[in-house]
Amino acid sequence: SDGKTNLLDSFTYACDEHAKGVVVIFNGNVILGTRARKVRTKSFNAFASIDYPRIAIVQDNHVIPYITNLNDDTIFYDKLDNKVGLLKLIPGISSDVLEFMLNKYDALVIESFGVGGLPMYEGSMFNEVIEKYTKLGKIIVMTTQVPNEGSDIAIYQVGHYLKQNKHILEAYDMTTEAVVTKLMWVLSLTKDVNEVRNMFYKTISNDILFRRDLK
Prior knowledge:
The protein is α/β, with parallel strands linked by helices. It is 27% helix and 20% strand. The protein has helices at residues 3-14, 95-104, 126-135, 157-160, 176-189, 193-200, and strands at 23-26, 29-32, 36-38, 47-49, 56-59, 62-65, 84-88, 107-112, 139-144, 168-170. Strands 1-2-5-6 form a four-stranded antiparallel beta sheet, covered by helices on one side. Strands 7-8-9-10 form a four-stranded parallel beta sheet, with helices on both faces. A two-stranded antiparallel ribbon has the order 3-4. The chain is elongated and about 60 Å long.
């Protein structure tokens, strides 16, 4: 088992002067928690850092730092809003599924195809469902099923109309894991759409770095 080695590496890093924030330490790699994703089920090299470099490695009981200018103002919270759902689009998915999820949750993360967007095939009612539930105050975050390079819903027609709705946010280079957790945290503090938007797009522990609408 690699458990003993990973635990020792974790203590080694925690005792180092460069240790900051919340991280995942696995197979000698030190990965920001906001960028970590499990990409293998059995291998020792199970976790990857998505669209961000490893911040350090632990080798022979020594920490070799790669990035040392991380913000260390970690604040702990003890409350999360669990009314955040996740919908992964598949070919031929019905808008009824979207309506069911939006009826059940206050916020919904939609993992779309490619750079992002919602289907517009004949008979689909995605636009109408989106309009109905965003008017009721529901929050939607568009992201992508693709692990790397993030979303950009402005590229294709299936995403253009989504950019006009202030209740629809975009993950950009945030991981799905970071998006879901961040929404749970934000919604535990406020339900105001403008405050949710501002807090969601505030960079925390380098979770979001490339907002294309700010270029």
